[in-house]
Amino acid sequence: MFDKSTVKASSISSQLLQHSSLAKQETMKRFFKTEKGGYAENDFFLGITVPEVRKIAKYNNYISLEEIIILLKSKIHEERLISLYFLIQKYNSGDSSLKETIFNIYISNTKHINNWDLIDTSCEHIVGDFLKDKPKNVLFDFARSQSIWEKRIAIVSTFYFIKQKEHKLTFKIADILMSDNHDLIHKAVGWMIREVGKKCGEDYLIKYLDKNSAKMSRTTLRYSIEKLDEQKRLYYLNKDKRSNR
Fold first, then answer.
1. Do 153 and 159 form a contact (C-beta atoms < 8 A)?
2. pLDDT of residue 1
3. With 0-12 CB in 10 A as exposed, 13-18 as middle and 19+ as buried, what is 221?
4. Whole-angstrom Cα distance, residue 54 to residue 52?
5. Closest Cα partner for 205 from 238, 186, 229, 185?
6. Are 102 and 91 in contact (CB under 8 A)?
7. Residues 186, 217: contact at Cβ < 8 Å?
8. What is the rounded average pLDDT of the residues 193-213?
9. Residues 81, 161: Cα–Cα separation, whole Å
10. Alpha carbon 61 to chain centroid distance?
11. What tens digit of pLDDT does each residue of 149-165 get?
């Protein structure tokens, strides 16, 4: 067991480095689009698997918020990732005051939560949960942001509500993002719309598709209808003689 005063950001960095892999690093660089012009241009990977990062987080939970923020602002992807695991762990075990502090840390540092895996790992557990009984203004602000990452946080945070069988917020955020031109937003919106159908009821999904499928990018539509039966999928793919977009 670690003493609270002994776990520093530098110690976490050293532990992560011990698990680095050049071969995995190259694979991750390609997978996460770090090339020039890619959405993660200049992001730096050590080449560590998610289970390895999770294990290090689990056994180093006695780390202060100040040290976690150091990791969150790191140029190294896995250090940012583990900082989010730490925040989730502390959030889950914290009182209302700590939860609010962690929520504020999260939404104040979105420029560092700057890849889809970082967002998808964390936002529903912190942003979604914190807003469960509060105004959702920040999600609407993020949906209208110029930041692709804040837009993705806005829609994926609604996964928390979908799991509570609440679908309206997801559809409201999806409406704002429907005309976005980035593939990562197309995928996220389609993913959340699909999850409404799975967890809230297919009738809600069908009703939304009937009204909005013609407005969706091809990617959003395909993600949205992925779990429908073949006849329904073909219906929406062919509806209004859609062209590929």
1. no
2. 35
3. buried
4. 5
5. 229
6. yes
7. yes
8. 97
9. 23
10. 22
11. 999 999 999 999 999 99
C-beta separation of 203 from 165 below 8 A? no
- Using the Cα atoms of residue 179, residue 181, residue 184 and residue 190 in order, give the sign of their dihedral: positive
How far apart, in whole angstroms, are the C-alpha atoms of residue 52 and residue 20?
10
**Nearby residues of 110 by Cβ (< 8 Å), 6 or more positions away:** 142, 147, 149, 150, 153
Contact 178, 215 (CB under 8 A): yes
Determine contact, residues 100/130, Cβ cutoff 8 Å: yes
pLDDT digits (tens, 9 = 90+) for 28-68: 999 999 998 999 888 999 999 999 999 999 999 889 999 99
CB atoms within 10 A of CB 141: 12
Q: What's the 3-state SS for 172-217?
A: HHHHHHCCCCCHHHHHHHHHHHHHHHHHCCHHHHHHHHHHHHHHCC
What gap in Å lies between CA 188 and CA 201, rounded to an integer? 19
To the question of pTM greater than 0.90 for the whole model, the response is: yes
Token pair of 154, please?
């806005």
CB atoms within 10 A of CB 88: 19
Rg (CA), the chain: 19
User: pLDDT tens for residues 85-107?
Assistant: 999 999 999 999 999 999 999 99
Structure tokens that stand for 104 in this block:
């504020």
Residue reference for tokens 């955020």: 173
